[in-house]
Amino acid sequence: MVTESLNAFEIAQQQIHEAGKYIDLDPALEAIIKEPKRVLIVSFPVKMDDGTTKVFQGIRSQHNDAIGPCKGGIRFHPDVTVDEVKALSMWMTFKCGVVGLPYGGGKGGVICNPKEMSQGELERVARGFIEAIAAIVGPDKDIPAPDVYTNAQVMAWMMDTYSRIAGSNQFGVITGKPIIVGGSLGRNEATAQGCIYTIIKAAEKIGLNLQGATVAIQGYGNAGYIAARLLHDLGCKLVAVSDSRGAVYSEDGVDPSHLLEHKQKTGSCVEFGTCSLITGEDLLEMDVDILVPAALENVITSKNAANIKAKIVAEAANGPTTPDADKVLFENGVMVIPDILANAGGVTVSYFEWVQNLMNYYWTKEEVNTKLKALMFDAFDKTYITSQEHKVDMRTAAYINSITRLSEAIKARGLV
Prior knowledge:
- The protein has about 425 residues and is an alpha/beta fold.
- It has helices spanning about 10-20, 25-35, 80-100, 120-130, 150-165, 190-205, 220-235, 255-265, 280-285, 325-330, 340, 345-360, 365-390, 395-410, and strands at about 40-45, 55-60, 70-75, 105-110, 140-145, 215-220, 235-245, 245-250, 275-280, 290-295, 310-315, 335.
- Helix 3 (about 80-100) links the parallel strand 3 and strand 4.
- The two termini are about 30 Å apart.
């Protein structure tokens, strides 16, 4: 048995190896797929508000472009590492594959603390980074998007800088932009909306009635809040929520919108109404129907997996469950909707945005959500069928499908 590792890159490689066993993956293909094609590390100077100049380091990993251009977010975070970015780019390849998008995976990050920076400093960092990696990105090469602590405004600055370099508007170089400069309706809600579509399908498979189903959400950012609101609209009861400052519980349930208002006023979900204070570990191990990890990596591990009582774990975040924890959850009958399926709604609508940019023709929100629902339902069904055929968990099934698809492209191009 492979011992548990919390290194994201090693986890991604382990997941590829485990899934490859079920399809007798050619060792040469496995070797190609287990490494990113290109990793660019850049350093760029930024003038700070106090007049000093600070040098920032950024990373862009491009995993594989056999099926199409690379695609993936850019995060601003003090703990960004090369291994993390490499792993995230690999997960993006398989995320695109599981929903059938013509993309490979990319990911980027800048080592910085956006909470300590002004709007002007953020803009200069955004423009500096995209200028530093401009040679390897583009509408037909690599299309970045928002990620942790980046947003539509940051994407607009990046798109504008790239367009200045190119000498013409290049809306298709970036997705997740403001609507006025080529963004897509429905993109802001897409990650959570796609996650809800997979929860609906999972509930059908295990016979769970969503009316009155209890929900705990770890992380109350954009994806966490919207998932909470959409589940609430389906009749679910939100009983526990956490953010970086703590976690709260209410047996009677809470209104997601009222909780968001409280967080916006106070900066946290704690001390909301009559909710009781609990620990983040309490939330993960709570006896609920649906658990939505919507924060960072490695929160469900071999240490707490046996205590997870949720019937469905829907991974709105990237990499919240380690491989050893996956085994325990599968043995205990927990339906885990893996990140590369559960949160693929974001990249799917990013793909829609890119297509709209290339056509210069834009869809209504209803059209976007109709297309998203169809793709997410189909991806879930294909993953579930593979899981039943091979008697494996949904994550392994998703990898089997994605790796099979990527392998066919690599072989068709004569790359192995």
